[in-house]
Specification:
single chain; 309 residues; alpha/beta; 6-stranded parallel beta sheet; 10 helices; 8 strands; elongated
Length: 309
Amino acid sequence: MLMQEAEDDHSLLIYMGATVIYGGTIFYQAKKNRVEKATAFRCGLLLLLVVEILCFSTLRSSVGLALFSLACLMFCFYTPVQAMLPVDRKAVLITGSDSGIGHELAKYLDSLGFTVFASVLNAKGPGAKKLKETCSERLSILQLDVTSSTQIKEAYLEVRRKLQNADLWGVINNAGILGFIADGELLPMSSYKQCMDVNFFGPVELSKTFLPLLRKSKGRLINISSLAGGIPMPRLAAYGSSKAALTMFSGVMRQELSKWGIKVAVLQPSGFKTAIGGNPEEWNKEEQNLLENLTPDVKKDYGTGSKKR
């Protein structure tokens, strides 16, 4: 009896050790290489647990351990994973890296080992300063207003000069503005033009400028659009229209550039806390501009005290 209990305890320790070794290996591989089907991965882990219990309770320690080990090896071999592409000698250009998604993306890609060209609206601003302090020497700050043809050309020449033996693997058009939020009838034409300049014409010109480098590397063009570009949202007429144009442009370019091996993707983030909305001073200025451009008839219909929603 005592010998049987001792043997069971010994077997339990062996199983626990095997579980730690195989479990650690499985989770390390899952973290290193993204698992394609998370639900199937979890179900597989649960099945492994059931197999372990059955092997321990019904089979001799050596046979059960061998069967359990075989099950773990088969699980590791057949689990579908998406291997991360190598980043050696690969460079990425990101616009709008002063803050928000562009800023965090620049830091993340730098941490993965990419050569990052982080373009900012203000090269001497706090966003650029923070990137310099927290990122590696592989990251370069570029002064770039996407509405300036001159700065786009200068950025292209600077990127081409610094690439040397590397390839420009990706261009991410992230820079954008929200504009003032108000009924479409109330918005001055300057708001529509500003949104189109920053959110559409800027990315188009920048894409056209850098496509020769992407063609050489068979890289990818990624445009950050918005759900507002596909779903009509009240009070976002200017912003939504500009993002809809960007989405359509991306779809057309995806078809036209496929013959070169260039991939085109559109990302439509949901709500994130970023600086895209501007600051109170800018909003007050936009509101004053809106009120000054209203016609008497519109003021009468909407009222002077508050805007109808």
